[in-house]
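Budget justification note: compute hours in this period were largely spent on complex prediction jobs such as the one shown. Inputs:
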Amino acid sequence: MNWSWEFFFAYLTNGMMMRGAWTTIWLSVISMILGLGLGVVAAMMKMYGNRALRWTAEFYIWLFRGTPILIQLVIIYTGLPQLGIRLNVIESAILGLALNEGAYLAEVMRSGIMSVDKGQTDASRAIGMTWRQRMWLVIIPQATRTIIPPLGNQFNGMLKTTSLASVISMEELMRSAQMLAQTEFRVLEAYVVAAVWYLVLVSIWGLVQARIEAHYEKPFGPAAAVSPDAKKDIEKATQLSGAT
Amino acid sequence: MTDNSPHLSASADVPIVTIENVTKSFGDNHVLRDVSLNVKKGEVVVICGRSGSGKSTLLRCIDQLESIDGGTIRAAGHLMGFKEKKGVRVPMRESEIAVQQRDLGMVFQNFNLFPHISVIDNITIGPVRILGRNKAEVREEARALLARVGLPDKENAYPRQLSGGQQQRVAIARALAMKPKVMLFDEPTSALDPEMISEVLDVMVDLSKQGMTMIVVTHEMGFARAAADRVILMHGGDIVEEAPPEKFFGNPDSEHTRLFLSKILSH
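Corresponding output:
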């Protein structure tokens, strides 16, 4: 057996690994935010756009969900220069991860928006809201409730997916572990330390996610109980709306 | 409060809603065949009929929640859903229709209050966020409206904390906050328990007394007798009876009306 606790603990607090972990964090956050933007736009285009917009969104989602993220990253970083488009490592990594994430989030957004009762659209149109006002003031605030849990899971996935950016030499956790493994050939220790770092990041995110979800699980308004009368009416109304 | 109470004026005979030869189909289903109807300012018109007779669709077409296939709807001075370009009628965009919809108020069977904001915000969201009016001023009006529908102490409640009857009264206040010229009611009491129906109808009767033009789809024949100027029966996408309440209930022309009334009243 050739496992060294000394190397393991040394690698755990190794500067390069910690920098790698930090890179994984910001790379995940930035890609997620951009992916969120792309996802919202793609979902809106698919749901409310004219035929051209709808097809563009469908094509985008089909393309990026249908190909491995690894190929997307390699094409962006090493393939696009052939067409005269040169992006550096960081730009390529962010672009690839965001485009990929956006395609998945578009579907999450779409199902969230569809989960909002159709009566809300009627009511907001009836008082004269434009499409934009309706989205911002009525639909999105309510869709958020449905979207939050899958969004948290997507970010959990993103923290780990960033490891693929190591193939285009993005110096995040995985790449840092690779480089460390090559200095003293303590391969197992280096990669186990990387794995530990991923576990730490994902676990911290899990705690944050639980808090966010707890906040969004609460019903709208103060925590007071719904009166039995109100409950009965709401059930009745829901049944009726289902029947018509 | 007087701001929100349009009153009968000299122009009471001018139609404020004109519906001419309106048709509407969902696929092969002809929901409105050839519907024409005038409603004068300050008038209360009750529309009844079996489910599937087209009454709700007619209301939704007036408010442009559904587009029409043929005919013309004019309401509150607007040619609903269309604009004239060089003498040719072209459909409006949704944002243009939204401007027309602000002059019509609509109340739904399922209340459709915005569940994520408080009662007062439900009422002020239109005037403040759509019309860009002063928030403090609108809040004052909203409080007056809440008092008018009998819920002065509920401004900070959320919709889910209210009973169905209370929610529907807030929904009426929300519609009135936009100062509509016409109010449309789509089966406003059908989702309510019997003991809550009257609290909503009382508000509606009150509104009609203050001169509001109202088109009400309902099976509440008590309301029709008390408040309606005309009662209409729709059947199979057509208007088959149109009469003042005394005639409608006492001596209707159409066989459909007699049949409908015998079914409604036997319950």
